[in-house]
Amino acid sequence: MTLPVLELVDLGKVYRGRKGGVQAVKDVSISVGAGEVYGFLGPNGAGKSTTIRMLLGLISPSAGEIHLFGEPLRNNPAVLRRVGSLVDGGAFYPFLSGRKNLEVLARTHGAGADRIDALLEQVGLSDSAKRRVKGYSTGMRQRLGVAAALLGDPDLVILDEPVNGLDAAGIQEMRLLIRSLAADHGKTVFLSSHLLHEVQQVCDRIAIISRGEVIREATIRDLLAADEGLRLQAAPLELARSVIEERWAVEPDGDTILVRATQDEAPEVVRRLVGAGIDIFGLTPERRNLEEVFLSITQEEAADA
Amino acid sequence: MLEAFAAETLKFRRHRATWFLVWIYPIGFLLLSVLLICVGLIQARPETAAPAASKWIESTAAIWYVPPHMFGRYLIAAFAAFVFAGEYGWNTWKLVVPHRSRSALIAAKFAMTFLFLYGAFLLTGLLTLLMGWIGDVVLGSPIPEGITAAALAKAQYLGAVAALAPVLVTIAYTSLAAVLTRSTIAALVIGLVAVTAEQAFLGLAPILSIYAPRLVWGLYQLLPGYHFDNLSSWLGQGSASQTRLPELEPIAWSWPASLALVGAWVVGVAGLTFVSFKRQDIN
């Protein structure tokens, strides 16, 4: 079995202040395999950025362990040379050009500058490479941030909100780039984003973090399948509900019922209803998207807290 | 480490602040020299005898009076504040910290700040020599006899060594302030206050010693200010700088003791900078 590229074990962070401590991250344990595109989702202030900063060595954890490529980060910070990152929307030296910024980074990395032109081309900044970053738009900085993240040809790419500030075409390009990093170049991608539609399209697996704790970790397919259902319009509705409840869970919703059954089970649902003499006016598959699932999970969690 | 140093050099060599705080010395001096030569050509000058060779040589190393001077140290503090605290202002530590050890990054900043400043002073020293010679030739002033390359090199060497301690201590003060405050302005203000307080204490010590003689006597020897003068005196005159505070034993340290104390200040304050940065959370 191959070692996970990234593994967080009971990771925690407490910010200590004069008025006591604030638990920003608590017992976060996740594991990301090689070649995966892993999404890290959560509402604002949930602890996403703190977690990302800890795994980049910017913040020291108060508890737990971070393993990168099977090695504890605490004992071997040099392992971060195999990691590329985009944090905070690409903060750069404003007085240097895009190209010079990448040269500075290449020297800091100890990497050659031979990939710079290709990367600038890849992120569509070749024409603006000699302009000072001070004059770049947010989207351009974001693109330069992605180029910077890929500069050292890393095995693990960590992207914090990579599509922030990009227009629709830019988002589409970023989506393709992220998928291509994993599919064509075998890189592992760990990304946080609040654009759930994008996450749904590019990620294999996600973790949802709320109030510093991971409250759900699953593949996109499993997460969405758990919320799959069939919306039934039938009469009499109460009778239909009692018939369906013998086999599946149901959620009454006005003059319809949401049957927790897969689309493959639709013929059996129909047979049972018809067998019980119930009139069926409609049976439509209903699949919630990631945004709805995310909202329902985080709202449930907030209500429980 | 060399790669981190190369990155620092690339980052700062052409920044406006570097032009105004570092490259200003050779450029400013060059312009001033050209101006003075032009003025000399326009104005009628009485014929003068050649100055003594020692005076002429000393004048070529005049730039080395700048870094130990309070205003020279202000400029050094300003450059150090910009180099060390700039990364916080631009939010760029996040960009580089994951890829290089924090110690190497801070060490590269120390090395770059020091070498840029010393490079500028040295270049200014060489320009002083060159422009002094050109000026005398163009204006027809006599160049004294007995000027040798060894004597010129020695003058530059003595000036450079004497300036070492105040430059290093000023950089160390400001670097620590930058890391602790994460602000260029705050680091600059603290650097200026530290330099001013340290220099002012030397002048005020005889007055202050009336109120707390032992404390002032102790502080006078503990703070680095006296030791800058003492090391300079040992280098220039071959004897200790003597200070006598009212009704107290005279102060006259040996050069190794002064060197050790200044070294302790540099290592101590720079060490605190390294430790603070290593333990710092970069949000």
From TrEMBL, chain A:
**Record Pfam families:** ABC_tran
Positions of the ABC transporter domain: 6-236
Keyword terms of this UniProt record: ATP-binding, Nucleotide-binding, Transport
- Recorded family membership: Belongs to the ABC transporter superfamily.
Q: Tell me the protein's name.
A: ABC transporter ATP-binding protein
Query: What InterPro entries does the record tag this protein with?
Result: AAA+_ATPase, ABC_transporter-like_ATP-bd, P-loop_NTPase
Q: Which Gene3D superfamilies match?
A: P-loop containing nucleotide triphosphate hydrolases
Molecular function terms from GO: ATP binding; ATP hydrolysis activity
- Organism of derivation: Allosphingosinicella deserti
Entry-linked PROSITE patterns:
ABC_TRANSPORTER_2
| UniProt keyword Heme, yes or no | no
The record ties this protein, via PANTHER family, to: ABC TRANSPORTER, ATP-BINDING PROTEIN (PTHR43335)
From TrEMBL, chain B:
Which residue ranges does UniProt annotate as crossing the membrane?
Answer: 20-42, 71-90, 110-135, 155-180, 187-212, 253-277
Q: Which organism is it from?
A: Allosphingosinicella deserti
Q: What is this protein called?
A: Uncharacterized protein
Q: Keyword annotations for this protein? A: Membrane, Transmembrane, Transmembrane helix
Q: What is the lineage of its organism?
A: Bacteria, Pseudomonadati, Pseudomonadota, Alphaproteobacteria, Sphingomonadales
Q: Does the keyword Membrane apply?
A: yes
